[in-house]
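Quick one:
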Amino acid sequence: MKQKILAVDSQILNEIQNCARKAELAHIKNLRPLEKADALEKGDLMHKMLQTYYSLKLGQVSADLWDSLTEAGVNPSDKPQDAAISGGYFFAAKSSLPEDISQEVIFQFREYVDHYKHDSWSPLAVEEVGSKIMYEDEDLKIIYSFKIDLIAEKGNIVAPFDHKTGSTTKEPSSLSNQFIGYAWALGSNTVIVNKIGFQKTLSRDKRFLRYILSIDNERIEEWVNNSIWWLRNWQINHLDKGLFPMNLTSCDKYAGCIYKQVCERNPQIRDIKLEQFYNPAEQWDVARELEKDQILEGLETIQKD
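Output:
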């Protein structure tokens, strides 16, 4: 029998552990809501500006990003923060965000850069994409993929950074597939959650916080074994059998499942509602992302801080 290959990332693993039907709709049928929530659009805009900023500081820019910056009229001699702001206006114009919200994100970016103008962390890589074999036997190979916002070093510590935006002050938990997956992928016991708050009433030192998560090797090994159990079960009992039952305890968690409005309908009309409320998206393909993110190095004309 031919070996099966299961490629996942932390988001897919989350959905598998959360609800089999949600995982099917999100990552097999690849259905996404017709409209993206403003909170997600705000986060995307900030991520793109941070990607631009750190890429230019490092002097390594992906081909896609460079094409966008060129279209935005960015001059290679611009300072990284100025180029990122110009890019921010360009990216905002292509989004569905209202102008006042776009301006808020750009304002917070300016504040962030000024807050960390004497940053002790030095960037090593931006939007780093990779894959690692998590498990393999004669029947199944599990490939775990990751995309890390920023990898930086301070002294003898090299750590993955994850940018988190929002208006809550809740501290991040190290019990996260995403964070432990970063630690495993990078061989690091330290993960930095780079929180960028949009709260208008808080000072900068309370809006911009960096949480240092320590994850020891024993916990990383435990996470790997735990993930393998879930993913082998997903392959054997769901993918191979075509069975994707609902987990009704997950429907109303947080802001509610994005597919809740379909699952609440009569099963006979769900396909119609899926077509009405969702669009098929391009399936995540790590190989394509690796190819797309080839780095344009040697941008000697870039003026760094």
